[in-house]
Design a protein that fits this description.
This protein is α/β, with parallel strands linked by helices. The strands form three sheets. Strands 1, 2, 3, 5, 7, 9, 12 and 13 form an eight-stranded mixed β-sheet that branches. Helix 3 links the parallel strand 2 and strand 3. It starts with 7 loop residues before the first helix and ends with a helix.
Amino acid sequence: MADALFTAADLALLAQWDTPTICNGLEIIVPERRAMGFTTRNMVTADRALKPIVGLARTGVIRSREKPMGPIPTREDWYSYVAAGAMPTVAVLQDIDDLPGFGAFWGEVQSTVHFHLGVLGCVTNGSFRDVDMLAPGFQIIGGCIVPSHAHVHMTAMSCEVDVLGMKVQHDSVIHADYHGAVVIPADCVKKLPAAIDLITRREKVILDLAKAPGFNSEIMREALKKSGEIH
């Protein structure tokens, strides 16, 4: 299992950094993933003040424009699936309607139930509602905000999904905040703190120079020779 490569404490440690910083670290560790594995679409954040969420993905597919046409997963099965055990979880839901977010899966009730099952939040191209009544501490990275849940229902769970341009599988490690979300390969979790430390030290050299009196492009040129790539 992927989670054998890291502990819950390793995931909690990564919550101290924002998602762009995690992406920077991954560019060093797995440069071949530089243009993949993160959200690339506009989104809405439930609460910008919340710290980043880091957990194992629990995936599902939803739609809401029409009533279910056949057998669907039960909410009871979904709750059992997403409930956190040794590791925290993050729900990742793909809305497959032609107009994603027509009806909201997430609101006061679902955020409260999921939060108390150990789910840290959700990443979805779908919608949410009840913005002022969401469970405190439950983060949602969503496609839009709407007032109704319409016919929202789940059509599949524990499957690969594509949410806001990010492909996610069951048990993928998700890091998310108000910037968006990224999938962290399991074997990179423990490597990220050292990579981020390297980036931070490189950037500090540039930032200190840029803020110092007399800074100019020639000083920057010389600094880049010593520091390498920066962002």
